Predict the structure.
Amino acid sequence: MDITNLSCMIRSAIQSVAGCYITTTDKKKLGFVPKNKWDIKWGQVDVNETKIRIVIDTIPGKYTEEEIRENIELPLRLKGSRTTGFLIKKTNNSAPSHDAIEISIYKNYLSTYSSRKLLDFIQSCAVDSSFKTKPS
């Protein structure tokens, strides 16, 4: 698998969820922004020649680091490191505030990585994305 194929598979996983869609621009190239049924951004996917970076906004407190590790089969990484893995930024507020999961997968890692669990996790987050609503 390569970065282009993974980007396309993530796009398909998101768009398979009722109400979810993606927006993109020429500048983003293969990258895109997922939106929920309320037309609210709930993440982003950035793609370049060396890596794919996925940011997912999730319900506050829904996932622990261990649950994410099990769900996507990637290691925890340090902020700013240039390695494959994930980090989670937790909020202390309730929804529509959100925790943010940032996943980076470098090109050299894709030859041995099975993306099925990652795609299932992203699809599950897409289903939950309607927690983000416009302020009343």
The mean pLDDT is 94. Strands lie at 21-23, 33-35, 43-47, 51-58, 85-89, 99-106. The chain has one domain: 3-131.
